[in-house]
Amino acid sequence: MKILLKHRWLLALAVFALTAASYAQWSNPADEVPAYHPSAPLKVSALPAILSGSQLTGENFRYPWQVHVYQQAASVSSVIYQLPCNCRCDRALGHTSLRSCFEGLHGTECSTCAKEALFAYQQTKLGKTPAQIREAIARHEYESIDLEKQ
After folding, report:
1. Which of 38, 44, 85, 86 has its CA 20 to 30 A from that of 147?
2. CA angle 24, 105, 114 (to 5 degrees)
3. Contact at 8 Å (CB) between 98 and 117?
4. How many domains does the chain have?
5. Cβ–Cβ contacts within 10 Å for residue 100, how many?
6. pLDDT in tens, 104-144
């Protein structure tokens, strides 16, 4: 009986340690920076698809900029995976990076997400690294993007 209790105690301790370690991986210590991934996704892991093609039609895609944003986001998928989203959808929707906003319809209804994705596309084309783009997003440089002129 004592051995069984000892094993349960060790199992509980191991589960606690794993939970704490996995939480630390996804949390932001200062809780000031929204969630993002510090490096590109692993080639072996399959990410949810960014909406594309015929999915970019219908009631949620009323404006040309909405379709354009999703197309640009898809073309820099691994970059936006490494960027935070300042609308704080990590808290409200459980998103893990800016990329999450374009795996569903959130990017169609949130101008912050849309502007950040277009900014990321533009900056990537200028040769900026994800870390440099993250710094620019922290400075709110994406706010100058005019979605209607895209």
Report:
1. 38
2. 80
3. yes
4. 1
5. 24
6. 999 999 999 999 999 999 999 999 999 999 999 999 999 99
